[in-house]
Recover the amino acids of this structure.
């Protein structure tokens, strides 16, 4: 008897009909002779709605209370899915993150899984039960509720699959796999039969929200092979696994976009040791996550530093930088720009092929799209463009690499 972990996202449990569909699918998997553990998200829109309610009371609600509040979204959906299963005659049990033995450390709203104790899940499975586990939540050793960051049910599913040594882990969602680009944006995007952990991680962390990036890191660390597929049909999905030699033949696996980015540029800083450390230190202290960082020396031994961040952090960044810049130089100048977006091309084949950046930049140039900043890693080239051009940019780069066609 195989053990199958299935994760159903918010859209897949977004209505009572969809919940019936999930229960039916779980029953079918069970009737085929498998043991089934589902991890489910809150019904679509519920998490956002709960955040909105808290913000109606207070601009900056306590993260401890936000965690307690948000965890209720998943608790509603596990109970509903379990009730739906029971109406189909399936012996099922809903299980919260804490009951599933998902122990967390770190901060509220972005807890990290430190340890798993799957004993209750194993006991129930041994009794023949079908399980419905709440995604996105765990508890600290003291019993405090933690959530695992937005999209965190993916992480729960991978962790549960690892802890139970599941034979199969399926991420069931509203698309039938990982595509060469978000199919909502690039209509001729192609479903990938497989993608390596590293590529999926780069795509997820540069805006392809089909998987939460931390869940992919976890899967890689614990060697959990998983499949992304549709909760509404039986089409084969995309397998996410360790890279193998054939994978390098494809230069670019996919394109990601990330909107709502902002840039801060600081100029007039003396070109002396320690300056970058002071500037980045101030931003780190203000808990601002920087993405791209570019520094250069301009004229008269002055340096220039540009960073990108999420646009919601722009005000906080300006406030954090002001006092430091005043200390560093009377000539220091700060400029900001919102309304930019990032486009990333990802592929492990890039390591052994040249000319990838040139193809990408030419495609953008031919469309008259201006490139702001550029950053590269071994398997990624990313650029910023004006946010209004991001969809055209994604389509142009997708075409330039022929991603709509099967690789030869
Ligand atoms: P769930 O609620 O099931 O967790 P998400 O909304 O988090 O689902 O993720 C699925 C969505 O991810 C799709 O509807 C799709 O628009 C988006 N997406 C972004 N990039 C990609 C990609 N490269 N391939 C497939 N889907 C993508
Ligand atoms: N409900 C949570 C969210 O909306 C977790 C998830 O859906 O994976 O982010
Ligand atoms: Mg998701």
């Amino acid at each position: 008897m195989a053990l199958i972990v299935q994760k159903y996202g918010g859209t897949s449990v977004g209505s009572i009909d969809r919940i019936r569909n999930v229960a039916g699918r779980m029953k079918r998997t069970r009737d085929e002779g498998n043991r089934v553990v589902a991890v489910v998200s809150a019904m679509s829109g519920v998490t956002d709605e709960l955040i909105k309610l808290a913000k109606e009371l207070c601009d900056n609600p306590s993260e401890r209370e936000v965690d307690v509040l948000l965890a209720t979204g998943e608790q509603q959906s596990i109970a509903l899915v379990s009730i739906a299963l029971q109406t189909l005659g399936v012996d099922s049990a809903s299980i919260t993150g804490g009951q599933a033995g998902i122990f967390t450390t770190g901060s509220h709203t972005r807890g990290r899984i430190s340890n798993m104790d799957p004993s209750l899940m194993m006991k129930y499975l041994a009794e023949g039960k079908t399980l419905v586990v709440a995604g996105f939540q765990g508890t600290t050793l003291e019993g405090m509720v933690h959530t695992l960051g937005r999209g965190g049910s993916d992480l729960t599913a991978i962790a549960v699959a690892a802890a139970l040594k599941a034979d199969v882990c399926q991420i069931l969602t509203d698309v039938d796999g990982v595509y060469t680009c978000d199919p909502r944006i690039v209509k001729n995007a192609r479903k990938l039969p497989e993608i390596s952990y590293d590529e999926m991680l780069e795509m997820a962390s540069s805006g392809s929200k089909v998987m939460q990036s931390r869940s992919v890191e976890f899967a890689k660390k614990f060697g959990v092979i998983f499949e992304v597929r549709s909760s509404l049909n039986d089409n084969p999905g995309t397998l996410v696994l360790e890279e193998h030699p054939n994978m390098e033949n494809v230069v670019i696996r996919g394109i990601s976009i990330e909107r709502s980015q902002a840039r801060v540029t600081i100029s007039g800083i003396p070109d002396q040791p320690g300056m970058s450390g002071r500037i980045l230190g101030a931003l780190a202290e203000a808990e601002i996550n920087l993405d791209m960082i570019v520094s250069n020396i301009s004229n008269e031994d002055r340096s220039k530093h540009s960073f990108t961040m999420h646009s919601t952090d722009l005000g906080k960044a300006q406030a954090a930088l002001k006092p430091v810049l005043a200390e560093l130089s009377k000539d220091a100048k700060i400029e900001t720009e919102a309304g930019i977006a990032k486009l990333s091309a990802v592929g492990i084949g890039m390591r052994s092929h040249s000319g990838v950046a040139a193809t990408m930049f030419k495609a953008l140039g031919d469309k008259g799209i201006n490139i702001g900043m550029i950053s590269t890693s071994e398997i990624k080239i990313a650029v910023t463009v004006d946010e209004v051009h991001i969809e055209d940019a994604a389509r142009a780069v997708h075409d330039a690499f022929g991603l709509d066609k099967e690789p030869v």
Summary: DSSP finds eleven helices and 18 strands in the chain.
